[in-house]
Amino acid sequence: MTAIQALDICIDCSHWQGTIDWPAVRASGILIAMIKATEGESWIDPLFGLNRRLAEDARLVVIPYHFLRPGSPSEQARHFRTAAGIDYGAPYALDWEGRASETASAEHVQAIGDELGAAIGRKPLGYWGIPGSTPAEPTRNMLEWPRWVPRYPLPGVRDWSMMGTSPREHPETYWRKDAGIANLPSFGQYTAVGRVPGVSGDVDRSVAFFASEEEALAWYRGDAVQEPKP
Asked: Does the model's pTM come out above 0.85?
């Protein structure tokens, strides 16, 4: 079995980052961009379309994400799928964070994911934290989604090389423990104050837990052979 690595190849962004020099981002080694597309039942990120087009032109792969709010699950699912233009079989993410009163209930999150999954043919990438830093207890079905788990073991980290030895060599200590998942997630967000050439100011950075960049991109395409993660 090929060993799983923590690949420092991901950022996530929205209009808050302003104009992004995507060729510079790609030249720095970033391969995957999670880009905010929508929020709630009607809001569309004003830079989503431009960011996705320029990121793809620079040879990054894009995972659009929807920021969940209270409201109709069907309306949120329809709005996200329509505005983001998600192709059948393509990856997408649901961002579940904040106070329970300001986001969707777990039951609504599952309903949104189920509706999107039926239409797109792929389960959502679920973004939420470990217990104590997530809005509520996820449903059993949500725990079967591929996961993107935020946790910041050290403050002030700009890139993965700045992380301490323990998080880098034993990521399961930080992203698996008490996270409601049996193995390492697909992605671990490790800082909200990262720096990347081409982006002015702070940007969220994540590592991808795969055996290689090729396997991470195969997961993106939906044709990865999934090996158990330690």
From this structure: yes
